[in-house]
Each structure stands twice: as structure tokens, then as C-alpha cells.
Amino acid sequence: MDNPLVSVIIPVYNGEKYLREAIQSVLDQDYRPFEIIVVDDGSTDGSAEIARSYPEVRYLFQENQGVSAARNTAIALAGGAFLAFLDADDRWAPNKLSAQVGYHQAHPETGYTIANQRIVLEPGAPVQASFKKELLEIDHPGYVPSTLMVKREAFEKIGGFKAGYRTGEDVDWFSRAKDSGIAMGIVPETLLFRRMHHSNLSLQGRPNFSNLLRTLKTSIERKSG
What we know:
This protein has a single domain, classed as Spore Coat Polysaccharide Biosynthesis Protein SpsA, Chain A, CATH 3.90.550.10. Helix content is 34%, strand content 24%.
């Protein structure tokens, strides 16, 4: 049986410092076939030049609309049976795609999978007061897009990322995925190295807190409706 195509989606906004490493971690995968779609969400730095320097990358530019809109733009163009996501400041282990596709093939009832992540603190980067510092010491399941692999039909049932969220869109998506009843699997390997640095939005506690409350309210309304 031929391996299914995996669409790898990388949103980027002024990510020139880390984008090359992210793309290379996809190219170093021990799995084929995959396609790489980079959606540039209005960058003003060298992100475009970096993405365009790779012939394997399909690059698109859009006016700044936020990471959710960037991912959704790429999803509309993706041709894979599976969708996988990688933030431009993160990187994958070389067996990330093969481990998750293998899990899906062994558990065909599963609609989406995540894996363990290791959070890597950039030298000199502050740790937000709301962040649990013990998470820097242990690898743990990452409920974040960069660990996610999802079957296309499952994603279509769950729906795309909410464009109204500038941060916390991952919490909203995983909440809707859980409420959908679609089976999730956790691959017990560390497949993501997630960088914590001065400007990554996903680890800023204050904006995420308001979105968390919004997500919980919406989930309650879904269940009661």
C-alpha cells in the first residue's frame, strides 16, 4: 500500500530567525510523500526570501490576518489525506510524520493524533508567570498545532481554526475536536521541539486567558444546545 500524502502547513509572520530550521526539519523527515505549504501572514522581514529559496515549498503571501487565517488559507490549497501543522519557530523530530501516520494506520478509527513535546527555552527568554515551569523539565503531550496530525475528513467535520482568535486558537480547536466525539490518539514519543522565546504568542498567558474563558463558554453552549 502506498503511503498517503501529508500536507505540512507552516504559517509565518516575521519568522526569519527560525523559519529555515522549521522547514529543514520537515525536509529531514524519514517519511514520504509530503507537501509543504508556507503561508506568509504579511511578514515584513526576510521570511519570504527564506521560504522561496526552497523548491519543495509552495509559498503564498496574504495581508496580515492572524495565524488562524493563515492556516485556513493553506488548508484550502492542501491536497493531502492528512494535515500536519508546524509553527515557524518550532521544529520536528525526523520521525514525526512516520510515527503518526503509522499510528493512524494501526488505529484506523482515530481521526487525529498528537505527540509529546519538549519545550526549549531560548537563552535569555523570560518565563511567563502563568507558565508551569516544571513543563520545561519533562516531555509531555502537546495539545498544540505543531504536534497535530489530522485526517482530512475529520478536520472537515471539526472545522477550521477560528479566525477571530489572534491567540488561543489551538485551545478552541481542540475543544471542538473533543466535543465532536472523534477519536484522538497520543503517540508516546517526543516528536516536537517547541521553542519558548521573547515573542511567541502561544505562551503569553494574559491574551490566552480571555480566549480560554471564551472557549469554555462556547463549549458549554455546544453541549447544552
